[in-house]
Amino acid sequence: MIRTDGVTGVRLWLLAGAAVSAAVAGALALAGVPVLDALLVAALAGGLPTLSVAQLAVLGRVQVDRLAAYGSSMLSLAVIGVTAAVVGSRARGSGGMGFVLLPWPALLAWTSVIVVAGLILVLLFHVAARALGYTESPLLRHLLPRTRKEKGVFAVLSLAAGLGEETAYRGYLITVLAPLTGFVGAATLSSAVFGVLHVYQGWLGIPRTALLGGLLAWGFLASGSLWPAILAHAIIDLIAGIVLGERLAGPWPSAERGGIDTVAPPTGSGRN
C-alpha cells in the first residue's frame, strides 16, 4: 500500500513538472517557436523527465509486473514517437527530422560504429561501478527479462524504444532546439533530458544514458540520417538487456527489496 508521504511526494513532483513545462513553453513561445512545438518540447524536456522521477516514489512501494511494465512502456513510446513525428514533419517534413534513407553500406557502417561505441561505454561504466563498489538499482535489475516470453516482449520493446525515443529526442527535439542553441547545444540538452528520463536505472544510469544519448545524437548529426541511431539504439538495448543483462547488472535478486517483487530466474531459461 502506498503511504501518504509517497503520494505527497508524487504530487509535489507533478506540480514541479507542470511548473517547469509551463516555464519552458513560455520561454520558447517568446523566442518565436510555434506554440505547438513549444508545448511538445515542454512536455518532452520538462514534463516527462519530472514524471519519471515522480514514478520512483510509487515503483519503490508496489510490485512491478515486468510484462505489464513492458506493455505500458511500448504504449508510451508509441505516443511520444507518433506525436513527435506528426508535429515535427508538419513544418520540416520527414527529411528535416532525419528520416533520410542511406545506402546500405553507409547505414551498416554508421550503425555498427554507434553500436560498438555504445557497448564499450556500457562496459566502461560497468567496470568503473565494480571498482567503486556500486551496484545497479534493484528496480533496473528486476525489470530485466528472464523468461523466454519476457525476452520476446523485451525485444519488441527495444525496437519500440529505438524508433520512439530517437524520433522524439533526436529527430524532433534536436531539430527544434538547434535554431536557438546550435546543434551542439541542442544535442547536449536532449542528451541530459534523456538521462533524467532513465532515472529508474539509478544514479549510475543517468550519466550512462545521457552519454549514450550524446553518442546517438552524434550518429544522427554526423550521418545526416536518423536511421543509424534508431537501429543502434534498438540493438544496444537488445544486447545489454537480453544477452548481457545478468552479467552487467549482477545476479538476480532473491528477496523482496523496497516493495519490488524480485523473483529468481527460472531454471534453464536461456537490458539499458
What topology emerges from the helices and strands here?
Blueprint: H1 4-30, H2 35-59, H3 66-96, H4 104-132, H5 138-143, H6 148-197, H7 202-223, H8 227-243, H9 245-249
Helix pairs in contact: 1-2, 2-3, 2-6, 3-6, 4-7, 4-8, 6-7, 6-8, 7-8
What does this molecule look like?
- With 272 residues, the protein is an all-alpha fold.
- Helices cover 78% and strands 0% of the residues.
- The protein is built from nine helices and no strands.
- It has helices at residues 4-30, 35-59, 66-96, 104-132, 138-143, 148-197, 202-223, 227-243, 245-249.
- The longest helix has 50 residues, at 148-197.
- The two termini are 29 Å apart.
- Mean pLDDT is 86; it is low at 254-271.
Shape: globular
- Overall pLDDT confidence: 86
Would you list the SSEs in sequence order as H and E?
A: HHHHHHHHH
* Overall number of strands: 0
Number of domains: 2
Kindly state the percentage of residues in helix: over 70%
Radius of gyration: 19 Å
- Span of the ends, CA to CA: 29 Å
Task: Jot down its keywords.
mainly alpha, 272 residues, single chain, disordered C terminus, globular
Brief summary of the model shown:
The chain is mostly helical.
